[in-house]
Design a protein that fits this description.
Shape: globular
Radius of gyration: 21 Å
CATH superfamily of the largest domain: NAD(P)-binding Rossmann-like Domain
Number of helices: 12
CATH class of the largest domain: Alpha Beta
Helix content: 25-40%
Oligomer: single chain
Distance between the termini: 18 Å
Number of strands: 15
Number of domains: 2
Structural class: alpha/beta
CATH architecture of the largest domain: 3-Layer(aba) Sandwich
């Protein structure tokens, strides 16, 4: 099989979808691997390292998309890449279709097979390809929040840990999943006052047992959310519904409850965001103000730490790349129903129910083989 890895073109995206070790494994098994020139530079991986492991270095995305049967990326294809997609080709990447109707309809029209990292299920029903980037984003959310709480960044001028005689920051985390858990662990290390809100009581019990005394849990309802917003210096949006748009938990009207200069980090922005006033931003211009509240809504947070993120991502995605190359997508999915769940589009139809329902489009279950 011909496997292609293009250079990511999303602004300030420094990750790459394959490591030199992955190239070596594929080539050793008789596959061709095409790497776009400079594709790994943001992660500190040179073309020479790829070539030394058997990759063919090609110039420009057209050479990748034009030849590769399987294209492996990190982020969704952008508008410049849409004309390069073709029916019969498999694209394996993060898509987050439910947050972008134009992307959904355009990719659907190309007929490409869209296999989404974020809906791939592991043997325990988990989301193994989403987990490492959620871990990175959760941890980053606290360090970014700490920075934007500083007064020169238009924040309240709050130190997360406080000092003797001065209270620490109060941090509200909406969602107790992977992002929320990792955010809470880092925030606890900063000695902040942390509250995690979630609708899953069993998850809250687990977090209560796991976390140190400065992390507390609350059931997610409108009353608790509104009361916590009054106290919060920093709010982390960490809600996920697999494949679907994130639910809006904080309305614009709710912002009036918050302290001027408080900060919102909406990690759920990839799925549309869980704050009504969320809109996508970039690392080069990460924040904006709404009603005196600083919003940080970067859609590719882990891209800023490209080396860490690339290695963490490829550790979990490469075994699936290898399965596709060895067996073909249909056979790989037939052998692994969790993998089949990652197929969001096939042959010009939507095969993920949540995506189809989000935009009122027809849903056709994927039948491998």
């Amino acid at each position: 099989m011909i496997v292609g890895v293009p250079r990511e073109i999303k602004p300030d995206e420094y990750r790459v979808a394959m490591l030199p070790s992955g190239v070596e494994e594929l080539v050793r098994r008789g596959h061709r691997v095409l790497i776009e020139q400079g594709g790994g530079m943001g992660s500190g991986i040179t073309d020479e390292q790829y070539a030394a492991n058997g990759a063919e270095i090609v110039d420009g995305p057209a050479a990748i998309f034009g030849q590769a049967e399987l294209v492996v990326k990190v982020k969704e294809p952008l508008a410049a890449e849409w004309p390069l997609l073709r029916r019969g080709q498999t694209l394996f990447t993060y898509f987050h279709f439910a947050a972008d109707e134009e992307l959904t309809r355009t990719v659907l029209a190309t007929g490409v097979t869209a296999v989404a990292y974020e809906t791939l299920r592991g043997p325990k029903g988990d989301l193994p390809c989403l987990t490492p980037m959620s871990e990175v984003a959760g941890r980053m959310s606290i360090q970014e929040g700490a920075k934007y709480l500083e007064r020169p960044q238009e924040g309240r001028g709050i130190l997360l840990a406080g000092v003797p005689g001065v209270a620490p920051a109060h941090i509200l985390i909406l969602g107790g999943g992977v992002v929320g858990k990792n955010a809470a662990q880092i925030a606890a290390g900063f000695q902040a006052d942390v509250v995690i809100i979630d609708i899953n009581i069993d998850r809250l019990r687990y977090l209560e047992d796991l976390m140190p005394p400065n992390v507390n849990t609350l059931f997610s309802d409108r009353h608790n959310i509104r009361e916590e917003l009054r106290l919060a210096d920093l709010v982390i949006g960490a809600v996920l519904i697999e494949g679907a748009r994130a639910p809006v938990l904080v309305s614009r009207e709710d912002l009036k409850l918050m302290k001027p200069g408080a900060v919102i980090i909406d990690v759920a922005v990839d799925q549309g965001g869980c704050i009504e006033t969320t809109k996508p931003t970039t690392h080069s211009k990460p924040t904006y103000l709404v009603d005196g509240i600083v919003h940080y809504c970067v859609t590719n947070m882990p891209g800023a730490v490209g080396r860490t993120s690339s290695y963490a991502l490829c550790n979990v995605t490469f075994p699936y790349v290898l399965k596709i190359a060895k067996l073909g997508l249909a056979a790989a999915c037939a052998a692994d129903t969790g993998f089949a769940h990652a197929v969001n589009m096939y042959g010009g139809v939507i095969t993920n129910r949540a995506v189809a329902e989000t935009f009122g489009l027809p849903f056709v279950p994927y039948q491998p083989g």
